[in-house]
Records
---
Amino acid sequence: MSGLFGELNNSVKALTAASRSVELVGRNLANVNNANYARQRVVYGDRGSVQTDIGVQSLGVEAVGIQQLRDTLLDAQVVRESSLQSSFEAEQSAYKNAQANLGQSVDRSGATSTTGSDGSTNGIAQGLSDFFNAFQSFSASPTDVGERQSLVQKAGILTDAVNEADQRLTQLQSDLTTQANSDVTDVNSTLKSIAELNGQIGRAEINQPGAAVDLRDQRQALVEHLATKMSIETKADPNFAGEIQVYARDASNNPVQLINLASTTGPVTLSGSVLSAGSPATADGGAAGDNTIAQAVANLASKSFSTPADSIDGTFSQYYSKTVTDLGQSLTTANAHVTSQTSIATLVKSQRDSVSGVSLDEEMADMIKYQRSFQASSRIISIIDDLLNTVVNKLGA
């Protein structure tokens, strides 16, 4: 179509396209603080062309769809790095709690601190030292009532310290198991939601791939949330528009499918570990004044255990010191991992935001551009209206 009526129709289409763009800019600005939102743009298309007496002419522009500005590679990197960051943070938190509940720490020189969790000097390391020193003193004066009372006191202090640490660590283990079970429930709920969104996206994009932009935002947010609970991988299915498959890795690094299109392949489960301990040993007492048992116990302070059947390696104090030191070193390593991974995750998210994030300056510039386009189209319609008025009402008058 050519002529004034054709240009009027083209201008109306251009006016509508500019209007859609202004509306979408307003939507972007409304979601500037929404971390799960990816900015959108109106996709323009030509309505075709027509042969006229002066050549081929365009039928004008129109808004043919909405494009979501996402980089699938950066999205995958954010999922991967967020998963690693959450894993290191969970490990760091567990080590911090274990160290606090054990009531011992390692100073910068690598020596085991004997400070208890309550700020006193009644840690297990100090208790062991006092216990063996008390037996050493008692073995020298087995009939001394004062030495005997001191021994009983030191033994009681060590026993209380060990029992308290055991109770706190047992409670920590229970808390971690409870948290893990809660996370498993959250994982299964998230997997179900992702599968449901997969189905909705697939149905919405049968005839127009990429059109379900809001549903894609919701799904990506859930995928990133799932990555904070477990390590996952996603892959787009080429045979189904917009739908993805979600995988995890087993202990042998083999892929395990969690989501297949619009359905989950089965719930994620957690098998806990059961810990058991041996029965306590007993010993008969000797005659009055006999220091054989006391001396034997005192000698345990310097006895080094190294056979495979032994539960410890080295002396009691060395083994305990090594246990605390290993825990401190593990915490230090976890802290380093968290610091490094947080920087990497922040960098990747910043790169993703540069593509998908809403920029106030850019949106305001686009708003002015679309506003001017709308005004120009309106002006053309007004001029054509005047021309048609002249043709219809004034020619021949």
---
Amino acid sequence: MVRLDPRGRNNQLKNLEPTGFHRHLVVAALLNKVVSLTGFEVRRAVKGPLTAKTMEYPGRYKAMVLNAIQSIDLGKVDQVIQLFKAARAHGRRIFVCGSGGSDSVASHLLCDLVKEANYSHPSPFRILALSDQLPKLIRIQDGLTKDRVFVEQLKNFAEPEDIVMGICASGNAPSIVSAIEYAAWIGCRTVGVTGADGGKLSQLAELNIQVPVSHMGSIEDAHLVICHMIGYYFADPETSDAR
């Protein structure tokens, strides 16, 4: 450990016994303050002062997310839960797909549903996240257009009375719209999870849960909450009739 000469007479570093100087230096930088240590000033490590403006955005974003969550139609969430219960009871498949950031939400719903709910139930969910298969499909089928990546999977597996759920913030992603159109055509039950004005998906899906706000991040946050409401209904041990 080294120590600086505070008198400035010698600018060379000297090998001396350990001191708390460097620890204070780090702490001072983290606190973003100007402090004086034995004649030396440790100046701000971050350019620009912390202002009320920089601190207020997280509060505004929190308010937007809460507003989006408040807009969720719980009655429609319950209808989806009932559809999923009936599908499990009758051995029907559930296919979930998402566009953009929503593809991870689709996979997350799958994880919640099978993580614990399937372990202790005699009739496990037969559920598949179509988005998880995209890398394989893109490698294998060079001629496959992105608009039909989910349709091609549904052609192989979906049957009448199965459930196809599409998650899309805008409601207009071609791949999701095509999947719901095809699913409805062959007799599947269709569910949309949308935002803003709902887009085309809200008009095509038999049941649509819409988050009618304009901020994309807030919509996606609310979609995750919706999927948690559905998934944890079956996974939560306190939900007695879910078993």
---
Amino acid sequence: MTTVVVLLAVGFTVYSLWVRRITWSCQWEISATMTVAAMGLGMLLVCNAINPFMDATLYQVLHWRNIENLLGHVCMVFAAAGAVYVASSRVVRGTKRARILRIWVNIPAGLSVIAMVATFAAGQATQLPTLYTDNVWMLAYQNIVASAVIYLLAVAAKMLLIVRRDPRHNPTANIYLWACIAGICGFGYRASAITYFAPTPHTSLVAVGLIGLWVAGFAAAAAGSWQRKTRHLTVPPQPVRA
């Protein structure tokens, strides 16, 4: 069931990327597009159905395990940071925005990734069959991932509360906001379940479902936002030949 949820969420990201395919060269839209791409890639890398195949393939090449999980979690952190970039573009501009993002997003996200890699290496995760063990380093790793994403999504949600005051941006901001709340709940529930309880199919489904809502909601909002911006653009009428 979790695989179905993951594939649905990835499907939303693929659709969103297709709708926004020309935004890769647009300065003000590329952050949302990169965020959607990071979300989709992150979901795929940690998908239970695909993960064993990738793990076995990478182990044959590198003799390391769980690298795909590390890369997927890094993508999730980058996606959460990207959500702040998207929200901040409607709140503040110029050098003030750059300073805010550096202090509240870039530095915390960078330190979180460094801490993730450090605990991943200290726990010898490359030799473990799974990351979901009682290994203290792996528990620290899982909590760092969850804390980083929750913090970044909370910052994005705080900015979205300001954006939604503008009637022009209210509908899209509300979708982004509820998506971020779902992500916060999903990663919070996931960290709690891993730390205090033995992981079960039910706990995994709840966590993946909430995280999938974050990914799908954000991707849908990004696609809808771009469609509304380009709705007035029409193909000019062609002259009638005599």
